[in-house]
Every structure is written in C-alpha cells, then in structure tokens.
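Section 4.2 – Deliverable D4.2 (structural model, holo form)

The reporting period included a commitment to supply a predicted holo structure for the target in complex with magnesium ion. Inputs used:
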Amino acid sequence: MKQELFSGAGVVLRLGELYLKGGNRRLFMNALVANAKRALQGRDEVRMHVSEGRVFLTGADDEDICARMRWVFGFSSYSPVRYCEKSIDAICAQAVSLARAYGGSPQTTFRIAARRSDKSFDHTSAQIGILAGNAVNEATGFGVDLESPDLSIGVEVGKEWCFLWTQQLEGARGLPVGTSGRVMLLLSGGIDSPVAGHLLQKRGVELSGVYFHAFPYTSDGAKQKVIDLARVLARRQRSFRLHVVHFAATQEALRDAAGQGYLVLLYRRMMMRIAGELARGQKMAALATGENLGQVASQTLENMAVVEAAAPFPVLRPLLTADKLETISLARTIGTFDISVRPFEDCCTLFVPPHPQTRGRADIAQKMESRVDIEACVADAVRTVEVIDL
Ligand code: ATP
Ligand code: MG
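Output (structure tokens):
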C-alpha cells in the first residue's frame, strides 16, 4: 500500500505554470524533479515522490529543506506538512495536534480548508471541514472564522495520500532550469547582470557566463567577485561554466583606434563578438546582458543598436525596462547584492574619456574598427580564455 510512503513530516510542493505545458509536461516534470533532487543533495534521508501532479518530500520538513526548495524554478508554492492515515479520525487528530502546536489563546480563531481530490473518500470536503473544525474547537476552545482567521489548517485527501498543513511558502515559480535552452550571459561584477541571469533561469534557461577581465588594470579581486556571483547562479543549475576573457590587450588596441566618445561602444561590440564566438562553440543560440534602457550613456536605444550590430546572436536583455530599485530588491532576495557592491573596478571605465557618445552610429564604429585586426582579437581572446567550472 502506497500510503505507507506518506507518513510523518514532509514538504508538499505545488506546481506553477507546468500545468500549462501540455505535450511537454513529462519533459518539464523530469527536469523539475532532477533540479529538486540536486537541491536536496546531502540530505539523503529525504525521499521524493511524484503523485497526482504534485511533488512530495518525506522524511523532514525543517528550515534547511524549505530553504533548499526556495529557488527551484517551477514550483508555485510549498508547505511543510504532516502526512496522516486516510481516515476522518486521523485527520481530526492531526488537525488538533497542529492547532495545539500553534499555541494561541482562547481568543485565537481558525478555519479548516479541506480539499479532496479522491472523490471516493467517504467524507466530502465540507464534511471534513465540519468534523475537523469541531474537533479543534473542542480540544482548544479556538473559535471559527472563515474570513480572516489567525490559523488556517489545510487538509488534502488524494488517492495515495492525506496531509495537513498550516503554512504556505512562496515558490520560485517560472519553469525548470534546463527546459528552455542555453544562453551565454555577459556577467560583470555589477548589480544588474546577475539579476538578468536569474530572470533567464526563471524562464528555464541554463546559463554559461563570460567575464571580460582587464588584468592588470582590473585586479584579481574584481575577478573573484564575478566568480562569487557566478557561484550563486550555479546553485540553480547542474553546473555553470564561467569564461574569463583576458581583455586588456584588446582594450589597448581599441583605445588607439577610437575617437569621439566611441570607446565604450567599441568595447561592447568586441564583447559581443567574443561572447558570440564562445557561445557558438557550445551550441548556444543567444547572448544576454544586464542592460537597462536609459540607465547610463551606453544604454540608449541608439547605442544598443550599435552594439547589437556586432553580435552574431540575438542579445537578450531581461532588465531592459526594469526599475533600478526593483532590481536592487531582487538582487538582495537572491543573494547577489552584497557581492555586487564590493568595491572593485570595472573594465569598461578603462581609458574612457569623460564624455561618452550617447547616439552612436554603427557605420562610424565600423570605420574606427577598420584600424584594428578584429578577427585576431577575437581569436586571441578565445584561445587564451580561462574556463572555470562551478
Ligand atoms: P551591471 O550592473 O550588470 O554591470 P551596469 O548597469 O553597470 O550593469 P554596464 O556596466 O554599462 O551596466 O554594463 C552593461 C552590461 O554589459 C552588463 O550588465 C553586462 O551584461 C555587460 N558587461 C559590462 N562589463 C562587462 C564585463 N567586464 N564582463 C562581462 N560583461 C560585462
Ligand atoms: Mg557595470
């Protein structure tokens, strides 16, 4: 009997958009389960079961387990639960035990929110609510309030399981990482690009990263910062390959060729070419940046077009229209903010004069680039790239 699987403490995870995914549902479910299992590594006592379109953990329901589930994309919400035998007596006893564990006072109010997906169970949802409600009221003296109670006790009865819960935690939502292809993220040490990466992962994208390092102009501290940011993103996927491109020699060559405030644009165009070449080698179909419309001089519509003209693949910009304060708040939530604000230099300010071009033109950029051996720069960068697998 399967029900033996579902006893004691555990966590029940509810699926989000996955319900919409029709024919691909199996594929999505497999990715979701694999990602959740990976997040549980080291907690071998916890078992996972999929049943009736839900994911069930058994064996533990502690804070560590809940924290591990927080960033598994694809779950809309989850709850620590108590599994119990599929009988009305066991449900009532478990409801009483949860109400007692809550503490409270005689003024405490509660409700029972019962749902039965197994229509053959010998009590309806409404009957479960009444019987369990009476039991809790008798045992604790708590009064019923269906509208806004202090304590809400959920009861769910399925074919193979029965469980109760009092707490609903916010899931990461989105789609399981690995179900939307792979993208090369231009990862700087700033606030925006890691958040952009997070948003892509939320849509199921598996990331690789590329960081342009201007050693010795930018220090190893700057590189370490990017590695630490990449590590945060790496937790949400199987592995994360960070490419560190040694960019100083290319920047020197571009400095000597650029004029009229075009230097940053030439840097960016070169970044696109090199990132594109690395992406091509790994069969990726898109690049991504943390760019945000109008945030700085290099991020006007005109300049984005100049940069994009040099990119061999589409450039995804998940933060294009984001509000800076919202981005900062998300960076804090996902744990990248404190790393991003560590003070280190950025290669894009290197040699850059005070008045950058805000309305660049691709033909002018191209003319300046004709003084540089672009192909050799790209080939050198790819040949000397440092690969760090996280
Ligand atoms: P961020 O906070 O992500 O650095 P930003 O608002 O500071 O963004 P810029 O510094 O102008 O903006 O960079 C725009 C985007 O270009 C970054 O989000 C990142 O994707 C890419 N980028 C800039 N510098 C680098 C770098 N050294 N290595 C890799 N990508 C970079
Ligand atoms: Mg930056």
